[in-house]
Amino acid sequence: MTSTYRAWTLVRRAKGLPGSDLFELRDFDDAPLAEGEVRVRNDWLTVGPAMRVRMSAQTRGYLAPYGLGDPIPGWAVGEVIASRSADFAPGARVLHQFGMRDYGQGPATAFEKLPSSGAPEHYLNAMGSTGFVAYYGLFEIAKAKAGETLFVSAAAGAVGSTAVQIGKAIGLTVIGSAGGSAKGERLKEIGADAVIDYKTPGSLEEKLAAVAPQGIDIYLDNVGGEHLDAALANANPNARFAISGMIGSYNQERASDMMHHLNRIVTQRIHVQGYLPYSDRADLLGGFRERMSAWIANGTVRPWQEVRDGLESVPQAIQDLFTGGFSGKPLIRLNTEGARP
Ligand SMILES: NC(=O)c1ccc[n+]([C@@H]2O[C@H](COP(=O)([O-])OP(=O)(O)OC[C@H]3O[C@@H](n4cnc5c(N)ncnc54)[C@H](OP(=O)(O)O)[C@@H]3O)[C@@H](O)[C@H]2O)c1
């Protein structure tokens, strides 16, 4: 018997901010469940900035562009509703990448079993690739040490808010950048020692210098452009820059940022490294998850998330990533039965 599912598709390539006109919600048929496959009802979806890169025809070395008219993939957690795999019984909670749709189906190897208790949506946030990026950037790239000063851009976002909390837990002085005073206040509540509002008039370089007269030792870059330039201008000798992403340029055909302080990489002996830990170092996920679940259990890390309801909310959620419309990790709840706020 075939089953149907509803999935978001990209119907035209993005130029600039990804508007709702790029997407259509369409019905698809799944093939009958084959030996070794499972079928899942999705309960939680999420969206992330890298989706924007895949909406362009050219992704410049990143994952392939989305196929026009195809179901858009994405992270999701759900519950197995049918299984032809000995590894998954109906009712099991799973993490997978058949997101942006209400039901997903695929080989058992594409699904990861989650604990049956606790908040499964954390696996789309602090316990998932988001948290892993923050953790890996601080420990594996920056080799952070207590007493150092960390600067985090997009600090009120998913990766950023997790990095702020880990940074405080390990004894760093943490400075976060975010747009707007409400996000700044919340950042202080989760432990930031100082915040800068990049949306108010004035030079970012000077704003950072004012709150970090001691200079910065670590920069976790989520934004690029002027943020990266300001971090270079304020970097201490032997600073480490963990470059997670550059959301500030994802809506531009070509990044047009004017950098003034690149030479500081030489004069300050700065170590600059981009990283994609989920694809490159999945072997470290187990150790990361153990540590993160302890931090969440003892309140050291409080996953920051904003929940919206319904599959229909996906296009607006994608757009809001780029306009500051979300704080923390965007989560889309598909099934409200027994749901937490
Ligand atoms: N390397 C990896 O494996 C990996 C994995 C996941 C994510 N990432 C990268 O990590 C970064 C953060 O991703 P995320 O999932 O945590 O998203 P996110 O930070 O939760 O969402 C985007 C945030 O970025 C800020 N922002 C948007 N446009 C901006 C701009 N032009 N200038 C400054 N801030 C801007 C917004 O906050 P404000 O309201 O403060 O503007 C928004 O809340 C992205 O660059 C993403 O590509 C990398």
Automatic annotation (TrEMBL):
One of its GO terms (molecular function) is oxidoreductase activity, acting on the CH-CH group of donors, NAD or NADP as acceptor. SMART domains: PKS_ER. It comes from the Bacteria. Keywords: Oxidoreductase. Pfam families: ADH_N_2 (PF16884), ADH_zinc_N (PF00107). Residues 19-332 form the Enoyl reductase (ER) domain. PANTHER family: PROSTAGLANDIN REDUCTASE, PROSTAGLANDIN REDUCTASE 1. This is Enoyl reductase (ER) domain-containing protein. It comes from Sphingobium ummariense RL-3.
